[in-house]
């Protein structure tokens, strides 16, 4: 099955954006690392970043008919605001893991609530770029246990 990685707003700036919070790894490096590891495990992986809520909703909807078996999503600021993106994931009913570089629970109170966590298969946060890798490991395990 194919894996889809979705990145929300401002994650295109990773590497230079508040590096003390988000680290110095770029989004391109994260995506290349994930694709290499998924491929080594025999799965295709596609990444998509957008700053636009509607573009992320459209990409989730497209996942229903493009063979996507699992989604990793860092909704970024939409974590705390987007009922629309939550509803899209509920609609397609593809299992997903919520990923964050930082640990939102250790930050401002407005980051403590997520519109995604209760629907997610799991949540990985606080490990910088490695959060994505740990989430990918869990996703690959999930896919192989269903194969
Ligand atoms: C984030 C945490 C969010 O609160 C924030 O709005 C982001 C990034 C993270 O990966 O740590 O943009 O999702």
TrEMBL record:
| Catalytic activity as recorded in UniProt | 3-dehydroquinate = 3-dehydroshikimate + H2O
Q: Which GO terms describe its molecular function?
A: 3-dehydroquinate dehydratase activity
CDD domains for this protein: DHQase_II (cd00466)
- A GO BP entry: quinate catabolic process
Query: Could you confirm whether the keyword Amino-acid biosynthesis appears in this record?
Result: yes
List the catalytic residues. Answer: 22 (proton acceptor), 100 (proton donor)
| Cross-referenced InterPro entries | DHquinase_II, DHquinase_II_CS, DHquinase_II_sf
| Keyword annotations from UniProtKB, A to Z | Amino-acid biosynthesis, Aromatic amino acid biosynthesis, Lyase
What EC number(s) has UniProt assigned to this enzyme?
4.2.1.10
Which SUPFAM superfamilies does the entry mention? Type II 3-dehydroquinate dehydratase
Q: Which domain of life is it from?
A: Bacteria
Q: Where is this site: Transition state stabilizer?
A: 17
Family according to the record: Belongs to the type-II 3-dehydroquinase family.
Q: How does it assemble?
A: Homododecamer.
Q: What is this protein called?
A: 3-dehydroquinate dehydratase
Species source reads: Luteimonas cucumeris
